[in-house]
Amino acid sequence: MISAAIVGGTGYTGVELIRLLSAHPEVSIDLLTSRSEAGTRADEIFPSLRGISDIVFSDLGDETLDALQKCDVVFFATPHGVAMKQAEALTQAGVKVVDLAADFRLQSLIDFETWYQQPHSCPELLKSAVYGLPEINREKLADALVVGNPGCYPTTAILGLKPIIELQNKQDTRLIEPRIVIDAKSGVSGAGRQASLALNYAETTDNFKAYGIKGHRHLPEIEQGIEQLLSSQFKHKIRFLPHLVPMIRGMFSTIHLELTTEGCAVDWQQAFETSYAEEAFIDVLPAGVYPDTRSVRASNRLRIAVHQDATRGELTVMVVQDNLVKGAAGQAIQNMNVMFGLDETLGLNAAPIVP
Amino acid sequence: MISAAIVGGTGYTGVELIRLLSAHPEVSIDLLTSRSEAGTRADEIFPSLRGISDIVFSDLGDETLDALQKCDVVFFATPHGVAMKQAEALTQAGVKVVDLAADFRLQSLIDFETWYQQPHSCPELLKSAVYGLPEINREKLADALVVGNPGCYPTTAILGLKPIIELQNKQDTRLIEPRIVIDAKSGVSGAGRQASLALNYAETTDNFKAYGIKGHRHLPEIEQGIEQLLSSQFKHKIRFLPHLVPMIRGMFSTIHLELTTEGCAVDWQQAFETSYAEEAFIDVLPAGVYPDTRSVRASNRLRIAVHQDATRGELTVMVVQDNLVKGAAGQAIQNMNVMFGLDETLGLNAAPIVP
Amino acid sequence: MISAAIVGGTGYTGVELIRLLSAHPEVSIDLLTSRSEAGTRADEIFPSLRGISDIVFSDLGDETLDALQKCDVVFFATPHGVAMKQAEALTQAGVKVVDLAADFRLQSLIDFETWYQQPHSCPELLKSAVYGLPEINREKLADALVVGNPGCYPTTAILGLKPIIELQNKQDTRLIEPRIVIDAKSGVSGAGRQASLALNYAETTDNFKAYGIKGHRHLPEIEQGIEQLLSSQFKHKIRFLPHLVPMIRGMFSTIHLELTTEGCAVDWQQAFETSYAEEAFIDVLPAGVYPDTRSVRASNRLRIAVHQDATRGELTVMVVQDNLVKGAAGQAIQNMNVMFGLDETLGLNAAPIVP
Amino acid sequence: MISAAIVGGTGYTGVELIRLLSAHPEVSIDLLTSRSEAGTRADEIFPSLRGISDIVFSDLGDETLDALQKCDVVFFATPHGVAMKQAEALTQAGVKVVDLAADFRLQSLIDFETWYQQPHSCPELLKSAVYGLPEINREKLADALVVGNPGCYPTTAILGLKPIIELQNKQDTRLIEPRIVIDAKSGVSGAGRQASLALNYAETTDNFKAYGIKGHRHLPEIEQGIEQLLSSQFKHKIRFLPHLVPMIRGMFSTIHLELTTEGCAVDWQQAFETSYAEEAFIDVLPAGVYPDTRSVRASNRLRIAVHQDATRGELTVMVVQDNLVKGAAGQAIQNMNVMFGLDETLGLNAAPIVP
User: Fold this and answer.
1) Helices A330-339 and A12-22, axial angle in degrees (round to 10)
2) How far is the C-alpha of A277 from the C-alpha of A284, rounded, in Å?
3) Angle at alpha carbon of residue A194, lines to A190 and A198, rounded to 5°
4) Which domains does chain B have, with CATH numbers?
5) What is the pLDDT of residues D28-47, one digit of tens each?
6) Nearest-CB residue to B51 (from D47, D49, D283)
7) According to the model, what pLDDT value does residue D207 have?
8) What gap in Å lies between CA A249 and CA C36, rounded to an integer?
9) What are the beta bridge partners of residue B99?
10) Mainly resides where (chains A, B, C, D) (predicted)?
11) Would you call D196 an interface residue with chain C, using a CB distance cutoff of 8 Å?
């Protein structure tokens, strides 16, 4: 059994890690830390866990690090800036780290410090950290000590664009025009488990709005992901705008692309199906079938549909996922499975909940 | 024009007062106070008011009382305990007071201090305050200086029981068994406009629960209301349990009553229709028609249905209202209309919003 | 492996059966029938099943019965009146039957025919059918050929009252007054998967109402369940009113009971905990903890809280379940586990989904 | 008083017309027709109208036309294809017609017949019909006999783009690149009042999806609107994709535009404010303030925010409206006000409902 710790398990990604890891056949959650809730059973805060897990939040103070160092893997479900302070000591003790916050996502120090408004405390380790998208970095993940678990929006954007960028690389011809519009929509759980007037039921329900309009931290992460996929000379200008949907879970990213003449000649349905044929969690929907977010609710699946309008020169890619699973905790476990040489789908096979 | 002030207009009852009074043909909102938002236009906090009202929150400090004393009526949309500190000075200056909090609802000092955990600062004034249910206290309201605007649940409970109690009084015979069960359900806006984890969208949506299980402040208010209606020797034991419904506005009270043999002989549909025949805002639905909360959304109407099952000896009374209108701001304005000798429906005739 | 068939799998209980049975380690779904959808893959109708199950709806016409007779168990997720037409032939072939509709719930023919407005086609078989509440009929279920899977409301009502009735029996003293008020609330999925104006999103959302006011089919089922528990001379008058909550899944039953003097002396928290100490799916919450429906979402758990107010002589029992799982498909599988001598929790251990 | 008729008032735009016209000081609803509901009071179908309107649905058969011809104005809240069959007879009798369906929106016969799959029955009248966007066609509307009330999406798209197109015209320089992406989101009431599995609460709630992916009828209407605004040589390629949001009312259109060098030099906030300075219902939000749909709920206001990112060469226009008011019934009444020379805001001044 893999001995796992969760640091900061009082948020939605924390409880989702507990839910999923409790059913994982090769993992035992041996430590769950929280300063604010030390001494409290997790199922007191989340009664849904009654009968599922009897783990207790602990705050070991100075001894926390010692205890974490005895685990095989530590998941950080903490605010940005926490994991990077402990990652070095953990990796030196041979413990693998999966950070669900942003400390190890952006590989440019300048970008990190610009968007997260704090210096990075372990730039050397950052260099060796792997961006945790198994569908792209599976091989690197197998040897990774530190994994930066992707943001929810970047997961949809990068996986939605990957087959296009790769085909463009392969054909060495521009298939899509430079400007890419990603109009994204997320359920409210993406904003985290917090007391906030803006997230109050009566403020959020029967309402729709955009946010992060002046710039969202996931934009540089998407840009980095696309940049890394590009092996050719073609540049792209990514435009990204997130919106808040009155629903609990779910993310829908609409990617508007303009095809070049060469791009119009491609059978994109075929290209996507081929690209993801071997992926357990990526479901390219049949031509003419379009996704809705509930079709992945509570599961690690991400579904993609492509709609190609040759007459208008348009390609539309629609991507759905559960922001708390493939967009956070599920992907973290998928990364862990790869890091420990397990079957990548272990503990992640549960069906979506519909209705 | 009646010069009105609203003290503490940043909550949901506050914005509802602004919305309704802005359309009232005989009222001008001349003062709107808030400590936290002084200097801010109301429509910055509530963009829905853009183009409706250009009033600015003010905090006049020591001069606030002077300014309030120049108005004709002051609405307190504040936490419990605020109105009672200013009511005396206001009434002495001839200003009428409508308190939307609980300071002037319970006429028993002991009850007030038990349930609200604070001493009452003007017990003399409390004696002359009128409980603001126009359908019961219309005559007293005409001369009232201070009105305690009822709680939302008590409004539904008392008006749902009034025809029964009155008929029992009139017939001087017990028509219903002593125990009355009021199983009530409210939308989330009833909990106020506040940052609260329990009210977070992702905590509240697709969820249903009871609350106030160990005792809710509206119970003594309901008991007082029923007590005051009883002119006969019959006592009742009221049982009250509120629940939280994942909807913004709306309140539904289900009142379960057991009929005596004499009670089974009554035509309750007829009794209710007769009782409320002259009331502009009380709508007794035709036999066999049952209410839903949306049928009163954003309006001052309260609808009642009665279902009588002679075989089982059961009477069920179902009452719906918009908790922010007839349950709060609308009723406050209805009270004001009575207090100033205006047509009681002035400013309150807008149709419910469906869908 | 147990070979299972699902007749009529296009509704919400049908897709829930597919979801749960697909993850059951001892069951294989070998047949899925539907007239309207014959030839269609289940995952075309329910894209959430893509990658989970590749089963195809079939309509074998005259050969359907032959095919069903080759299975070990047949689940009927059909309208009322379908299972009873096939149950005899199936049981004669040694096939076990679990009917999720009402054909085998009410053991009184008169009651069945009164409430469901059709004659019963196999009254003999009805006599031997077992009411599928494992927490009550576990022993009978072990040998049952035909199981009537309980209605969702009766599951909450009967399990919420069982410890009380049983203690009353044991003490041979009336502990609660005869009249029992069950004020119940259900999410919309309980109304089934159908095109209906009343269930349209814009009609149902931000709205709350009662229904079945003139009499609901679950009332005689609750009465039968309580009757069967009563071994003493005490009678009860059950009153039941369901309401529709704007949420997808979840059921909350509030049971209002009046305690006798003897009943006031009982420690009901203790009584409930003792009663359900051995039950895997019944969770009696600690004193002072109250349930919400989401704490059981998508799981087979049913949670109960009891609140006792000795001063007022009141006992309140609050019961939550997921209407599609413990209230339907999950309970059907729990019954099947018992019928086949399997561990009762097999395939039913998944954690609730929160948020 | 203007004598008005509503043909087909059983849908959401119908009840919204009744609600709004009942409060209009210069209009009397004298006729309300429906085949399916003839003889039924409107407030039986919509109990929210109890006490607001006592009008009865009628089906006059052959005499319907006679009765309509006695009115001053007829609103058609019918499916596409109904108004065009009666419009000629009505206008010949001097009755003004406002069609809330699509019969008089598209001025190209080919476009109409392609997108609505039926021949147009009065192409001559179509030529003289006015597209009912008062902010664009106010002068023509003053003399119009037949008005095609715009689709909900086109209202947001055309009004969101108007200041840009007009400034481009004026400066005679391309300010935005040709391709315009309109990513639009609508509440469920936009799909109408109908029994439909896809609109069932349990299918729609906690879910998000795109629709009309292969082509939506509002696209040619948007293209026509933009085409008519363009006086210059510049062409645009409009891309439009609608999405369904789990909310009752509200529409949010996100318009993604790429600025040319000349376009980057424009102060777009200023340009929008200037363009709409005189419009009662168009609210250009201050710089840095962004809209949400609830800020216009149940009102005729449409709010616009512009966000300009000079560095990236991006302009984002966000437009919100209530799809049933400014997107349908409210706009129809605004058109009627103009057609009859009334104050354009008459009957349309009610504040939005928040929360």
Assistant:
1) 50
2) 8
3) 75
4) 2-128 (3.40.50.720), 153-323 (3.30.360.10)
5) 999 999 999 999 999 999 99
6) D283
7) 98
8) 32
9) B76, B148
10) cytoplasm
11) yes
The answer to whether B328 faces chain D, any CB pair under 8 Å, is: no
State the average pLDDT over residues A244-270: 98
Pairing of strands A314-321, A251-258: antiparallel
Say whether B213 and C297 touch across the interface (CB within 8 A). Answer: no
D152 in active site: yes
- Contact assessment for residue B226 and residue B158, using Cβ atoms and an 8 Å cutoff: yes
Classify residue B349 by burial, with Cβ atoms within 10 Å: 0-12, 13-18, 19+: middle
User: What secondary structure letter does DSSP report for B302?
Assistant: E
Entry pTM: 0.98
How far is residue C141's CA from residue C147's CA, in Å, rounded to a whole number? Answer: 8
Distances (CA, A) of A196 to A193, B260, B334: 9, 50, 33
Residue with tokens 């168009």: D282
* CB of C38 closer than 8 Å to CB of C59: yes
Contact: C211, B246; criterion CB under 8 Å = no
Mean pLDDT (whole number) for D189-218: 97
Q: Which chain C residue has the Cα nearest residue A350? A: C23
CA distance D21 to C141: 63
Whole-angstrom distance, CA of residue A347 vs CA of residue D62: 68
Tokens representing B275?
């009782």
Residues 6+ apart with CB under 8 A from C227: none
Q: What ipTM, to 2 d.p.?
A: 0.97
* D318: closest chain A residue by CA: A210
Residue pointed to by tokens 């309260």: B302
Distance from CA of D296 to the nearest CA of C (A): 17
Residues of chain C with pLDDT under 50: none
Are the C-beta atoms of D290 and D320 separated by less than 8 Å?
A: no
Give CA–CA dist D139/D150, Å, rounded. Answer: 16
Task: Please answer whether residues B182 and B255 qualify as being in contact, where contact means their C-beta atoms are separated by less than 8 angstroms.
Answer: yes
* D246 chain-C contacts, CB cut-off 8 A: 201, 205
Mean of all residue pLDDT scores within chain B: 97
Beta pairing, strands C96-99 & C73-76: parallel
Tokens of D33: 């027709």
Tokens of C150: 């309980």
Residue C80 is encoded by which pair of tokens? 């009322």
**Residue D145 CA: distances (Å) to CA of C295, D68, D128, D133:** 59, 15, 8, 15
Give me D44's structure tokens: 């039986």
